[in-house]
Amino acid sequence: xxxxxxxxxxSLLLTAGAIVFGFVYLKSLYSDFYDSQVEINWYLVATSVLxxxxxxxxxxxxxxxxxxxxxxxxxASQKKAFLASQPYKYLPTSLFTFSFRAKYASELGLxxxxxxxxxxxxxxxxxxxxxxxxxMSWAVIDRPVLMIPSLFVLAAFYYLLPQKMIMNKKRFKxxxxxxxxxxxxxxxxxxxxxxxxxxYTLALAAGSSIGIPEAFAANAAAYCLGILAFFAPGxxxxxxxxxxxxxxxxxxxxxxRLLTLVLDMLLGAITILSIKMxxxxxxx
Length: 284
Fold this sequence. Notes:
By secondary structure, this protein is mainly alpha-helical.
């Protein structure tokens, strides 16, 4: 009982920390945005928001598909765990996102061990598909002649993969059928396309002339490297550096940070409340 109370207290403290950091960061971003005096096309901003929500909706479906590889009978409500964990990416390390995903997954009926395995599968799929989209988009910009040979290489790579991919460690055993892995990969790839379109639309809203391949490459690379930089809250500093490498203007980076922060916090809060309300109704 004491251990349970300590975990609840720690959870509340970390949630409060995420809220405080989010508020301070949002205030700082808004101040910079106000000082920039950039003219914004709000119709395009609304379109960008809808595309980003579609991105997260597909990724929540991607999370559910990863869970089903571990526990086929998992409830469809498990999709909420993905959205509920997003605000915690702004804590000092992304390990908090990992642990809170496990927490909400547990509340929705998936054990910690199985959700941890699902998260490893999910991240492998997200990173590989995102980096592939970034590489393909960069090839379109810089070396379009490499596109067709690259597709043949990818097809050969898939053909040579074993029918079942198994990783057996002391605590974890991950087994993924090749077709199931491809399906998961394709869901994530489609999600990245929506994210790229959202970023591209927001860039247009801020008056940027960035091209679609550049937007796809910059956003996917920045997001993936932000995930890998587990020590940086929300990939802060890492994503900005990648965007700068792709010559994305500081105003566009600022607007994108504002949009993603607000949606991370808003969608996360709504989903957490939904989980809590459903948990209370099921126990009453």
